[in-house]
Structure formats: structure tokens, C-alpha cells
């Protein structure tokens, strides 16, 4: 009888423990996306302004833009008389493919400046020339750069640039028709033509 009572008490206690047990409070699960910082909206793209082409001043006929240098058109000095022998001795020469005036040519430039200073009514035509190498177009451009270099050098010697006209013959007027270094050296030159008013 004692054994039966013990078994009954043990069974009742097991049932009580099974039904009551340890209860834990459930922890709510937070979704991952709600815990993260929301992404920033993309930065707005600045509006694209329409392209406006630059505005350049209108060109004056016979005047180079931005330099004020008269071009060498005959019509610009049609009331002048060319005097080629007057300054023929002061021709200056250039290195190959260069428009840089060398120091050895400064004496000739000073003589040209003095001739212009002696008679304020005179003007000057600078003719740029090249040797036969290179294309027609390239040499025409190089001859003009050489003539402009002389004009700028004369301006530093107090010659008014508006008295100086430029013209490029490229390789069209060689003084030496040879095909060697000696001939080419003679042909890379600026010639100076004194211009007198017509009587």
C-alpha cells in the first residue's frame, strides 16, 4: 500500500511539472531592413546649360585679328612707291623651320628702324620667304610668321607697327635656285622694302 501511494504521488508531481514548466517571455524579432538606415536619395543632376559659342569682334578688312598688323595687300599701300634697293643690304635670315630672329640679325633691324625714323612719311613692307622644302601651304604660313617676327622686333625699336606691312611668298621667290644647304640658307629670309608716298 505504501508503494502504491508513493507511485501515485510521483505520478502527480510529474504531471504538475509537465503542465506548468518554466515559461519564457517571447522576444519579438525585428526584421533586418527596419533596423538599417534607409538609403539616401540620389543627388539631383545639375541642369545642362545650352552651349553658347564665344563672340569675337568683327574683323576689319586688311587688319589681322588681335594684332592690328596690316596685311600685305597691295591695295593697302597703293599710294606708296616701292624702293627695293634702299634696304636690300639689311635682309635678315632664319634657321631651318624657324621664325626666331637671331641675335646676329639685330644690327640689320636697327638699320631698318633708323631708315624709317629718318622719314616719318615712309612705310615698310616685310616679305617673308622660305626654302623649297615643305608644302606650299606650310611655307606660306612660315613666311608670314617670319615677316610678323620682324614687325614685332621693329616695334621694340620704336617703329609704329601700323607703318609695317607684311607679305609671305613662301617658297615662291628663291634668290638661289640651288638644291643644297648653301642655297636654302639664302632663301630663308625677310626682305625689307621701303615705301615712299607717291609724289
Walk me through this protein's architecture.
The protein has helices at 2-20, 32-35, 106-118, 136-156, 181-187, and strands spanning 80-83, 92-93, 123-129, 164-170, 189-197. Mean pLDDT is 77; it is low at 29-35 and 48-69. By secondary structure, the protein is an alpha+beta fold. Strands 1, 2, 3, 4 and 5 form a 5-stranded mixed beta sheet that branches. Strand 3, helix 4 (136-156) and strand 4 form a beta-alpha-beta unit. The protein contains 5 helices and 5 strands.
List keywords for this structure.
five-stranded mixed sheet; 5 helices; 199 residues; 60s Ribosomal Protein L30, Chain: A; alpha+beta
Short summary:
The chain has helices at residues 2-20, 32-35, 106-118, 136-156, 181-187; strands at 80-83, 92-93, 123-129, 164-170, 189-197. It is α+β, with helices and mostly antiparallel strands and 199 residues long. Strands 1, 2, 3, 4 and 5 form a five-stranded mixed beta sheet that branches.
Please write the CATH class name of the domain at 79-197: Alpha Beta
Principal-axes geometry comes out as elongated
CATH architecture of the domain at 79-197: 2-Layer Sandwich
SSE run = HHEEHEHEHE
Q: Which band does the percent of strand residues land in?
A: 5-15%
The overall pLDDT average reads 77
What quaternary form is this? single chain
Major sheet: 5 strands, mixed
Class of secondary structure makeup: alpha+beta
What is the end-to-end distance? 164 Å
Estimated radius of gyration: 47 Å
Strand tally: 5
The CATH topology of the domain at 79-197: 60s Ribosomal Protein L30, Chain: A
Q: What percent of residues adopt helix (DSSP H or I)? A: 25-40%
**SS summary, helix count:** 5
Question: Regions with pLDDT < 50 over 5+ consecutive residues?
Answer: 29-35, 48-69
Amino acid at each position: 500500500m505504501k508503494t502504491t501511494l508513493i507511485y501515485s504521488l510521483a505520478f502527480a508531481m510529474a504531471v504538475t511539472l509537465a503542465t506548468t514548466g518554466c515559461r519564457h517571455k517571447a522576444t519579438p524579432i525585428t526584421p533586418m531592413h527596419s533596423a538599417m538606415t534607409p538609403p539616401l536619395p540620389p543627388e539631383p543632376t545639375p541642369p545642362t546649360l545650352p552651349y553658347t559659342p564665344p563672340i569675337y569682334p568683327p574683323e576689319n578688312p586688311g587688319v589681322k585679328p588681335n594684332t592690328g598688323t596690316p596685311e600685305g595687300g597691295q591695295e593697302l599701300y597703293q599710294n606708296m612707291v616701292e624702293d627695293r634697293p634702299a634696304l636690300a643690304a639689311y635682309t635678315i635670315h632664319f634657321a631651318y623651320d624657324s621664325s626666331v630672329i637671331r641675335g646676329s640679325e639685330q644690327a640689320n633691324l636697327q638699320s631698318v628702324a633708323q631708315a624709317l625714323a629718318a622719314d616719318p612719311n615712309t612705310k615698310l613692307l616685310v616679305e617673308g620667304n622660305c626654302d623649297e622644302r615643305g608644302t606650299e601651304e606650310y611655307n606660306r604660313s612660315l613666311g608670314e610668321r617670319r615677316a610678323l617676327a620682324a614687325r614685332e622686333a621693329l616695334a621694340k625699336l620704336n617703329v609704329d607697327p601700323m607703318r609695317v606691312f607684311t607679305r609671305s611668298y613662301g617658297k615662291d621667290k628663291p634668290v638661289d635656285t640651288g638644291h643644297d644647304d648653301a642655297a636654302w640658307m639664302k632663301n630663308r629670309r625677310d626682305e625689307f622694302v621701303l615705301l615712299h608716298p607717291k609724289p
